[in-house]
Amino acid sequence: MVKQVAGIDVAQQELVVCLGRMYDDWTPELCASKTFPNTSKGFAAFIQWVNKFSDAALPVRYVMEATGVYHELLAYYLDEQGLEVSIILPNKISNYARTLDVKTVTDKTASEAIALFGLERKLDQWSRPKGLFKKIKQLTRERGQLVDERTVLKNQLHADQAEGEPNKKSIERIKKRIALLNKQEEEIRGELKELIKSDAGMQQLILLICTLPGVSLLTAATVLGETNGFDLIRNKRQLTSYAGLDVKEKQSGTSVKGKARISKKGNRYLRKVLHMPALAAIRHEERFKAVFARLVARHGIKMKAAVAIQRKLLEMIFILYKTKKPYDRNYFKKQEKIISAVVNN
Question: Are 7 and 117 in contact (CB under 8 A)?
């Protein structure tokens, strides 16, 4: 035996677990399965069960999908126990499951697919988000929910005011709810600023990222919070895939030529927070304006070109974070001068 994996299908109330093994001839084997409550007592019983059916001489890797927030308590528990944990994006598991000869999809078959995926792939070790990044993510997501709720109320207010005989009391109540949401949003913004100021290193990183055109404190904080400070992000390709901004394309021979489009199978909060910064960058920065114009001239779709700018901004935020250098608007002009000097000499 060379590898042991516990594949876990996490739901709100229960954990469906499948224990698998890989032998030195690369043959996988699913040896046991069981269901446990998604509670602290269930976690303890789960670990005891795994220890009973696994080889103590070989570590067990616990693999699960990132299912909203339901997997977090288990992931934290396993991390506290010093165990090997990997959390996989759901689209990777679903794509892998399609390659298996499985006609009926249940929680059990899902846990089996996760176990097989863990046995066949080399997975990264998951680490819990740092306290500061987690708090930033909580605040930015809360603000996003408030903004969405306020948008619904403003649309409702506009519709009620446009009626032939509007109900004045209803309109007053809607206005009070909007005012409350405005106040709460300001409170969140204040908390977020104080949180960033409390850490000199974080404040410096945020200011560095904000040198990018169109990128505000809120955008920079959201990106860092959602990526846990780019933890486990090794390159730009992984980052765009995590955000769901990677391009998927279907072509076969000369007859099948599908339109290229982004997958949207990733972190929707990243895509959402980059929309307005991309439009601002197109409007105020010549470099992005030129890229946008070139893409629109190629296919004529403005939204598609704007999404490409979103992807470029996200990649540049990653580069600034890694290099610890601010955005240089004249970078390419300097490079052209250097190349010209080398050629002329």
Answer: yes
